[in-house]
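Bug #77: duplicate submission created two jobs. Keeping one. Sequence:
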Amino acid sequence: MIDTRRLIAKRKRQDLVFNVLGIICTLIGIVTLVALLLDLAASGLGRIDWQFLSSFPSRKAVNAGVLSAWVGSLLLMLVTITLAVPLGVAAGVYLEEYSRKNWLTTVIEINIANLAGVPSIIYGLMALGLLVYQFHLGQTLLVGGITLAFLVLPIVIVATREALRAIPTGIREAAYALGATRWQVIKDHLLPYSAGGIATGTIIAMSRAIGETAPLVTIGALTFIAFLPDAPVQSQFPFVNFKWLNSPFTVLPIQMFNWVDRPNNPENDFHRNAAAAGLVLILMTLSLNAVAIVIRYRLRKKIKW
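Kept job's structure:
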């Protein structure tokens, strides 16, 4: 005969042990992150000022800045999100709502899941061979954006599919019962209701893309650049300029790598610049995520279940 009390007590002890281990692991991660941030702030916070943000890189650490790097990062994220989000959402909608469930779609789903775990440098090698050498697009912002879009595309696809799966089946059935077509169901019901989940996946994807270095170094992004690309918006007709897509570029992670690789001495203190650039990168990532979270909140607020 099973002793119910002893069994319940045993399960409670197991739950307690699991909870304690979970808290310890969480605290280890948080303490490590806080220690790294404090060390980064102690080294680079005093270096951040308007001169640092508005100056180009220099051979002298005291005159060096990150203007070309943070502008390049923003423009690169603009290209990446413009390419990755529409393609990823369209692919997720097709796989979840249109495609037939057969061996081909199963193979596609497995490959999408596997692509999400492929090392980023593989995407850089692919872009180098295909976009730079085969299509002769050069080491430009367009090539960098396409490379990072390929990198984060599986994340957006998976997030889109999971967001669509989370919508109750009754919404689909009710819409079909009222005579709506499949596209009307997707456009008027599924996409608005899943917008919050898709936005969450996009935030995760962009957070990964903005810190990537290996694929950009592989395709030949510059480590020292003393000019800015042309502005995407201009005052004259047609008011939109696409020349900046063909401009060479650098980004904050590459600039940090370049400074960290230099000797660390008081006369050549590029390591403090690297720490300051790391703080700027963190602040930029948090700012972009905050904007995306606000957009997600407003999208969810408009939805009436």
